[in-house]
């Protein structure tokens, strides 16, 4: 037998090529599995060529590493045939691992076919030497090489199937798997070579007619490296292209999300709400069912923003959205229109379903919120419009639900109201009034009348209360009860209230110049103003601008306003008192004061509500109540003022009960500033 040997460098290089071929095969499996349609077919063809050429290259580099003491060559036809077999086996393998499933029977069958293909490629390559006499094969080693090919093919198919999808850690797994697969392929090749024996008189029939071994070595090495490089580069570019496409898809999805959802609460916005309402209306019309549209508006939300800041307000809106979603059903639509407005669209069997959910919403949204270590209270006013009774289009249902919501606010807030046709006219009136109010602020259509406050029982006069009036062009004077509720809802009360403070202080400075140096002017402060962030700055600037001492200004705050958020009110009023401004608790007896908080409020004055004065007579219940209020106020060191005094009997009784200051039509009506000096108390008869 001819003595044979191996080139160590080429053996190592064959192992490197086998590992690269295995890694390329895994990459190709991933690309084929990830592609669709024509792209998948192109990747399958390209992958089969690259993978097949890699396996074939490893085989022939191993053949070139094998040395005999005779001239050796390779037949071109059989060499090409072995390459075709390698490519065909690779195509079959890639197709197999990219199927949805790879059960055990299919895996075993595929391993047999692919192993047989690789073994056929190897022994076809051996036959390309055209040795004479024929190569002698050891049957046991021959069988072992085929078995190794089958087992290696099975392992490669299973590994490729498991690693065909991209993930975060798949690269390391593919590298390890490539090393295992490469060693198996090399093991099969060199086991097959060990099975061959060459008689001592052997000669190579392709030594002078086939491909020269040196040239074959050069071509195989260069081309194999080029194929691997090109394949991996193209694959990497495709991966990056896929990654870019996925990034674009994600960006597009995010843009759609932003376009159709509220950025803060992630609820559908007005655009998506409109689309869903159209769909819901179509379905309700087809199935002859009813829909309910609930328009939810938070009461007191602006005060939260002003006192605690917009960050806390945003957190509150998120919590409100979560509570609404928790109460809604899966098929209901919950949307945020902006600000503190939410809308629910419900499938209902009847109006009672909408009423039940609305009451649950009112109860849940009124429960305390603990946000950033603050205990916050808000309420909800809900308007309900029913399809088809209250509208057949999205616009009609939204407008009517909004009108019902405003009606709920007018009824006292923290409740719900069904739409009625009469509300539409009221909505148009409110919109026109709101427009006129904005114009009035800009055009200076407001004026102040002043009502005297006198020392009990009949003087002297110690100050006035400034009362707002509105006089639009071409119309008479409008009382505040007709426009102040709307001004509070729309926030216009802030610029209006700031004007009142400024004008009252200006007029007070005029009276001081006329010699009334002991008078004070009282200004009513709304809930919105009290909690507005700019209140203290407005007070400081106004007093400085008119050179008025703070003690000449009194802010009247109703008992309900002061107690709505007692802790916050206390903090703000303490800052107001620190400026030296007087504070009066207005309408006392009508709210729900905590005596603990009342004791802590920095008030100088307590005004008894006119409701207790209107029917005040000797010995009735109102006398007992007024007497108790006066006693409480004096215990707290407060000056007691009674408003709404209209009869001499009330004047005498209040004086006897210990009231310090009186105010009412009996003692002087609200008049323009020029007439205040003429509006002095009537004669007092002590009998």
The stretches of 5 or more residues where confidence is low (pLDDT under 50) are: none
Described by its quaternary structure, the protein is: single chain
Question: Major beta sheet, specifics?
Answer: 8 strands, mixed, barrel
Question: How do the strands line up in the largest sheet?
Answer: 16-17-18-19-20-21-22-23
* Percent of residues in beta strands: 15-25%
Count of individual beta strands: 23
How would you characterize the overall build of this protein?
The chain has an eight-stranded mixed barrel with strand order 16-17-18-19-20-21-22-23. The chain has a five-stranded mixed sheet with strand order 10-11-9-14-15, with helices on both faces. A two-stranded antiparallel sheet has the order 1-2. By secondary structure, the protein is of the alpha/beta class. The chain is rod-shaped. Helix 23 links the parallel strand 22 (639-643) and strand 23. Helix 1 runs antiparallel to helix 2, helix 10 packs antiparallel against helix 11 (351-366) and helix 15 (493-513) packs parallel to helix 17. The mean pLDDT is 82. The chain contains 23 helices and 23 strands.
Topology record:
Elements: E1 5-6, H1 8-34, H2 38-65, E2 66-67, E3 73-74, H3 76-97, H4 104-127, E4 131-132, E5 136-137, H5 139-162, H6 170-194, E6 196-197, E7 203-204, E8 211-212, H7 213-260, H8 270-287, E9 290-299, H9 301-308, H10 310-327, E10 333-338, E11 341-348, H11 351-366, E12 369-371, E13 374-376, E14 379-387, H12 394-410, E15 415-418, H13 422-443, E16 446-455, E17 461-470, H14 484-490, H15 493-513, E18 520-525, H16 527-530, H17 535-545, E19 553-558, H18 559-564, H19 566-578, E20 582-588, H20 595-600, E21 605-608, H21 610-613, H22 621-635, E22 639-643, H23 648-657, E23 661-663
Parallel strand pairs: 14-15, 17-18, 18-19, 19-20, 20-21, 21-22, 22-23
Antiparallel strand pairs: 1-2, 3-8, 4-7, 5-6, 9-11, 9-14, 10-11, 12-13, 16-17, 16-23
């Amino acid at each position: 037998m001819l003595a044979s040997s191996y080139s160590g460098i080429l053996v190592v290089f064959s192992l490197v090529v086998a590992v690269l071929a295995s890694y390329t095969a895994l990459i190709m499996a991933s690309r084929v599995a990830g592609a669709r349609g024509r792209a998948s077919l192109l990747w399958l063809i390209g992958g089969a060529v690259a993978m097949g050429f890699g396996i074939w290259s490893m085989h022939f580099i191993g053949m070139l590493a094998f040395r005999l003491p005779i001239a050796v060559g390779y037949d071109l036809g059989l060499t090409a045939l072995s390459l075709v077999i390698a490519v065909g086996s690779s195509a079959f393998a890639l197709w197999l691992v990219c199927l949805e499933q790879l059960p055990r029977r299919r895996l075993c069958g595929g391993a047999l076919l692919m192993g047989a293909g690789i073994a056929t490629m190897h022994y076809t390559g051996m036959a390309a030497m055209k040795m004479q006499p024929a190569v002698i094969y050891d049957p046991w080693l021959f069988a072992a090489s085929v078995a190794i090919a089958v087992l290696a093919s099975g392992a490669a198919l299973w590994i490729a199937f498991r690693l065909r999808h991209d993930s975060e850690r798949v690269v390391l797994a593919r590298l390890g798997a490539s090393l295992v697969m490469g060693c198996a392929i090399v093991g099969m090749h060199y086991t097959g070579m060990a099975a061959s024996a060459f008689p001592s008189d052997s000669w190579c029939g392709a030594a002078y007619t086939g491909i020269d071994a040196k040239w074959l070595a050069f071509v195989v090495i260069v081309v194999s490296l080029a194929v691997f490089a090109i394949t991996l580069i193209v694959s990497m570019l495709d991966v990056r292209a896929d990654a870019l496409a996925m990034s674009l898809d994600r960006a597009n999805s995010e843009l759609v999300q932003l376009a159709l959802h509220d950025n803060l609460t992630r609820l559908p916005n007005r655009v998506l709400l409109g689309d869903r309402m159209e769909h819901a209306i179509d379905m309700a019309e087809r199935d002859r069912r009813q829909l309910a549209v609930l328009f939810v508006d938070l009461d007191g939300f602006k005060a939260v923003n002003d006192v605690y800041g917009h960050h806390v307000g945003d957190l509150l809106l998120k919590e409100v959205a979560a509570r609404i979603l928790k109460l809604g059903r899966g098929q209901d639509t919950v949307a945020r229109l902006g600000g503190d407005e939410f809308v629910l669209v419900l499938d209902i069997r009847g109006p009672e379903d909408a009423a039940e959910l609305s009451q649950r919403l009112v109860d849940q949204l009124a429960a305390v919120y603990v946000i950033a270590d603050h205990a916050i209270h808000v309420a909800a006013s809900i308007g309900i419009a029913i399809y088809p009774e209250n509208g057949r289009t999205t616009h009609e249902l939204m407008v009517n639900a909004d009108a019902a919501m405003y009606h709920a606010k007018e009824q006292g807030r923290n409740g719900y109201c069904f739409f009625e046709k009469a509300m539409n006219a009221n909505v148009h009136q409110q919109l026109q009034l709101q427009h006129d109010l904005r114009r009035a602020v800009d055009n200076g259509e407001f004026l102040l009348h002043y009502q005297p406050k006198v020392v009990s029982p009949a003087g002297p006069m110690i100050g006035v209360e400034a009362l707002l009036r509105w006089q639009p062009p071409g119309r008479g004077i409008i009382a505040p009860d007709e426009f102040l509720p709307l001004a509070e809802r729309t926030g216009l009360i802030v610029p209006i209230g700031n004007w009142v403070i400024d004008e009252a202080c200006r007029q007070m400075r005029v009276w001081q110049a006329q010699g009334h140096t002991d008078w004070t002017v009282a200004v009513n402060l709304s809930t919105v103003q009290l909690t507005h962030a700019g209140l203290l700055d407005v007070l400081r600037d106004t007093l400085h601008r008119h050179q008025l001492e703070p003690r000449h200004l009194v802010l009247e705050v109703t008992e309900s306003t002061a107690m709505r958020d007692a802790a916050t009110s206390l903090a703000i009023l303490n800052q107001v008192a620190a400026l030296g401004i007087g504070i009066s608790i207005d309408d006392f007896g009508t709210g729900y004061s905590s005596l603990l908080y009342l004791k802590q409020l920095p008030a100088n004055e307590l005004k008894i509500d006119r409701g207790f004065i209107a029917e005040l007579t000797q010995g009735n219940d109102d006398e007992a109540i007024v007497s108790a209020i006066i006693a409480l106020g004096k215990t707290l060191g407060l000056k007691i003022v009674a408003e709404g005094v209209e009869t001499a009997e009330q004047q005498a009784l209040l004086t006897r009960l210990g009231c310090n200051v009186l105010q009412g039509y009996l003692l002087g009506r609200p008049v323009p500033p020029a007439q205040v000096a003429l509006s002095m108390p009537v004669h007092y008869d002590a009998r």
